[in-house]
Write a structure and sequence with these properties.
Elements (H helix, E strand, L loop, with lengths): L1 E6 L5 E6 L10 E3 L2 H12 L2 E4 L2 H10 L6 E4 H11 L9 H8 L10 H5 L16 H15 L5 H21 L1 E2 L2 H12 L10 H13 L11 H10 L9 H4 L6 H18 L1 H7 E2 L2 E2 L2 E3 L9 E4 L19 E8 L2 H10 L2 H7 L4 H5 L13 H14 L5 H12 L1 H15 L17 H7 L5 H45 L20 E6 L2 E7 L3 H20 L8 E6 L7
Parallel strand pairs: 1-4, 4-5
Antiparallel strand pairs: 1-2, 2-3, 6-8, 7-8, 9-10, 11-13, 11-14, 12-13
Helix pairs in contact: 2-7, 3-6, 4-6, 7-21, 9-12, 12-13, 14-19, 14-21, 17-18, 18-19, 19-21, 21-22
């Protein structure tokens, strides 16, 4: 059962029951209290909610104590369908999709700031921002028609929509975070918290020593690349960049100081006290996740940098008393995805083991890569195949990979060739890469001069590397979304939730509800009562296996999860 939702003004809205194909199954029902109406229907029927945007609508429901089991996010699915048609990046709002459907001028999407400036979606909303139930129903029906015949696309739409629900819930629940631990770590590494506008003591000490290393007549601001380059040039060491790999080639006493300064300065700027004040409150870090924010289907964040938590700060991620963090990481996910995609018999046999690289090590035992273990050679060969490496020792190892696992090698090679032709490639479920830009097409069809030919060749190789990796990375994102959706459902069954239809009261219900609190590409963290940690571990394993079956059927490729039950994130690995 599906129910279309149109958010109206002053807390009301419209609902309409739909058939699975999107056709109306009842009349439009206007409700004065949309939150209450959704809560009541979720408890009674648990339908799949069809609405314009989970990111816009669902946070308001969560704040009101209402969580839903399933949805169809029209904006996210519209974006997927546009991408499949080679029209990635076109406006995806319901109004835009409705205009396309009717052959009318397509309005641009509103920028997020415009939406957030409007206040509550259910109270005093400006009339022009209200949804139109006819448009919601019509666009959904057109999307259902568009997905017919696209193998796997219905699963992709469901997984993408489920991911949006998870993103909103994680943003609300937050990752357990100790502000005291964070402050102590910063103080240990940087010195006491400085006054606004000043460097921490450790950074200031390093800045002074960097200047001194260039001599008494030179003052160098380590935050200024231009001054650093000028100082090295004056010392007879001209360089064109202050990047770490360039500086490491220089023999100068300032180099180790600069490298240390850059590392600590990055921590202070990205995750220092200002970040702590902004993003952590009530013992929780609440980032703003953007489901499908990257073309490959990986998530992004619009604030907080949740996908880039420095390893040193993982000590600040601390479970509540009586609770544990269940940290689960998909081991060697992308190589396993390639094995399942390619169906290479020898490769899939190897991928049926726990450590894929170790299983392949015999193949590379007597090959190049001086000083490297056979396992490391296997890893280098696979990563080079997926990411387009082709220099140094990788060349010989790629040759071994090609001869021993020809189907796996050809799978990514075919994707690269398609990219170099300007074509589109897709994930297992149909997520599609963006087409090349008009500038790329102009450059790669350019004339006879040496410079344009060289630039064109570079552009072709770059596009090929992108599509080579896209088919693997995007499919890995599909798998991760299937894992999230399955795990979310299983966690709801383990313990109570703020959903209006909690499970029956039992031993587990008295302990509290496990929550997904973190997701990054191939890693999830569940915050759970310690007494339920074992149940959560079992749920993670079962969800990974369900995701494998949903995407790849009866493939022998294993997708093992490395799981640790810890009090602190830093203890997981």
């Amino acid at each position: 059962m599906r129910v279309a939702v149109a958010v109206g003004a002053r807390g009301g809205g419209d609902l309409r029951v739909l058939e699975e194909d999107g056709s109306p199954a009842g009349a439009v029902e206007h409700v004065p209290d949309l939150v209450a109406a959704i809560a009541e229907r979720e408890k009674a029927e648990a339908p799949r909610w069809v609405w314009a945007s989970t990111a816009r609508i669902y946070p308001r429901l969560i704040e009101a104590g209402v969580r839903v089991g399933r949805c169809h996010d029209l904006e996210l699915v519209e974006s997927l369908l546009l991408g499949h048609a080679g029209r990635y990046g076109e406006p995806r709002s319901v109004r835009a999709a409705w205009a396309r459907l009717r052959g009318e001028p397509v309005p641009p999407d509103r920028v997020p700031q415009e939406e957030s400036a409007q206040g509550s979606l259910f109270e005093d909303e400006r009339e022009e921002a209200a949804d139109d139930i006819g448009q919601v129903v019509g666009v959904h029906a057109e999307q259902q028609r568009g997905m017919r015949g696209l193998d796997g696309f219905a699963l992709l739409a469901a997984a993408e929509s489920a991911g949006a629900l998870v993103a909103a819930e994680m943003g609300h629940d937050g990752l357990p975070w100790s502000a005291d631990e964070h402050d102590a770590l910063l103080t240990e590494l940087l010195g006491p918290r400085p006054a606004r506008g000043l460097r921490p003591r450790k950074l200031q000490d390093l800045a002074d020593r960097i200047s001194a290393a260039f001599g008494p007549r030179v003052h160098v601001n380590p935050d200024s690349p231009a001054q650093i380059l000028k100082a090295f040039a004056s010392a007879g060491l001209p360089v064109t960049s202050t990047r770490a790999h360039v500086l490491k080639r220089l023999d100068h006493p300032a180099v180790p100081l600069l490298l240390e300064y850059k590392e600590l300065s990055r921590l202070h700027t990205a995750h220092g006290w200002a970040w702590l004040d902004t993003w952590v409150s009530g013992g929780r870090f609440r980032p703003e996740y953007v489901a499908g924010g990257v073309v490959s289907g990986r998530w992004a964040t619009s604030g907080g940098g949740a996908l880039q938590i420095p390893r040193v700060l993982r000590k600040a991620v601390v479970a509540d008393p009586g609770w544990s963090l269940v940290v689960a990481d998909a081991a060697q996910l992308e190589p396993r995805v390639l094995a399942a995609l390619a169906g290479d018999r020898a490769f899939t046999d190897a991928a049926a083991h726990g450590d894929l690289y170790a299983a392949l090590s015999d193949v590379f035992h007597d090959e190049g890569g001086e000083g490297m273990s056979a396992r490391d050679k296997a890893k280098l060969a696979l990563l080079s195949a997926m990411y387009g490496g082709g220099t140094g020792e990788a060349v010989q190892l790629l040759g071994v990979l090609k001869s021993r696992f020809p189907d796996a090698f050809e799978y990514v090679e075919a994707a690269a060739r398609a990219g170099e032709r300007g074509g589109l490639v897709r994930s297992r479920l149909g997520r599609t890469c963006p087409p090349p830009s008009a500038g790329w097409r102009e450059l790669t069809s350019a004339g006879d001069d040496d410079a344009p030919v060289a630039a064109a060749a570079q552009a072709l190789r770059g596009r090929g590397r992108f599509t080579r990796n896209f088919v693997v990375q995007a499919t890995a994102a599909d798998w991760a979304l299937a894992l999230l959706g399955s795990l979310r459902r299983r966690l709801t069954a383990i313990g109570p939730s703020s959903s209006p239809h909690p499970p029956p009261i039992n031993r587990r219900a008295s302990l509290g509800a496990p929550r997904l609190v973190f997701f990054q590409h191939d890693e999830v963290i569940v915050h759970a009562p310690s007494g339920l940690a074992g149940d959560v571990v079992a749920a993670v394993h079962a969800s990974a296996d369900e995701a494998r079956r949903l995407l790849f059927g009866d493939t022998p490729v294993a997708f093992p999860m490395e799981i640790a039950v810890v009090d602190r994130y830093s203890d997981a690995k």
